[in-house]
Fold this sequence. Notes:
The protein has helices at about 10-20, 25-35, 50-60, 120-125, 130-145, 165-175, 195-205, 220-225, 235-245, 270-275, 305-315, 345-350; strands at about 5, 60, 65-70, 80-85, 90-95, 100-105, 110, 125-130, 155, 190-195, 210-215, 255-260, 285-290, 320. By secondary structure, it is of the alpha/beta class. It has 2 domains: about 5-60, DNA polymerase, domain 1; about 65-350, Aldolase class I (TIM Barrel, Alpha-Beta Barrel). The longest helix is centred in the middle third of the chain and has 14 residues, at about 130-145.
Amino acid sequence: MTRELTELTRTDLQSALEALEVEAYRAGQIARWVYKRGVNDFNQMSNLSKELRATLRQSFTIATPAIVRTDASVDGTRKFHLRLSDGREIESVFIPDTPAMTFCVSTQVGCAMACAFCLTGKMGLVRNLTAGEIVGQVRLMAQELDLLDKSFNIVLMGMGEPLHNYDQTMKALQILADPEGLAISPRRITLSTVGASTKIERLATEPLMPNLAISLHATTDEMRDKLVPINRKYKLNELLDVCRRFPLKRRNRITFEYVLLKDVNDTPDDARRLVRLLHGIRAKVNLIPLNEAPAIDFRRPSDARVNQFAQILADHHVTVSVRKSRGRDIRAACGQLIVEGQKPSPAQRAAALL
Ligand code: SF4
């Protein structure tokens, strides 16, 4: 039986090779071919003997998502529409000049969180991605864009809630960090979550801890219950207490993302409440004026309203930025990723409940 090589950490690969009576150090050579040089055919691994290549071919496969289509925005953003080995489809986005280069990666097909302003949430959860599929998006985009030997950032902000697919997301971080592979430090990775407090507490104990971003989007439980339904289970106070205790490295902060919806959560009172809620947290706020879409019932506030909100935060010494929407013309901006025609089955819906 063959094993999928991209699902293995290097330690797993070493054990698998030893079971085949192949020297463990070959794992590093193979990782360099796959992750540093983008090779997914054992025949091309020219520093391995013919016999070893034959053994590897019989024992492993190397799956890479297939590109269905790429869309290029006028602002340089590129959206990759990808097909996985079971035919399911996801989207990933490359955003240049942010100021570094950034890959926005998916962790699930669809999403169970049903945030009211997000198209992905309308899909429901179809299935979790495996660690190999999460890393595969990075590997593929880096290769396509000729960036395998460059440094870039990764944001886990594509389709899905990463902490709802906890184990595979953590394994993906391990594979991404392998110095013989892509060598991406968790410091260059930001994990964005709607905030299941228990999972954030668990994240705080991980050896490979990414930067944390919380999708907050409201300043009262009443409003957050409507906009981010997981708030019905994990209330604002509980979430923010966990953030207060979250171990941050020196000079690091938690990012709070706040989608501004016209006349819903964009009032000066909301801004002042947000200041109070973040008291005692090393925080920065990222305001995201809504990216409107026909299936979304909310509207984008005026620039004046956005600036007023930002000014109130700044006046109270809260670090704030307004996210410039990238790739809106190709529907690649925040909350706009959706793959039509993929509905979860009733069993998948049931499994999606946290
Ligand atoms: S905003 Fe994120 S967590 Fe909420 S539904 Fe969309 S993808 Fe899921």
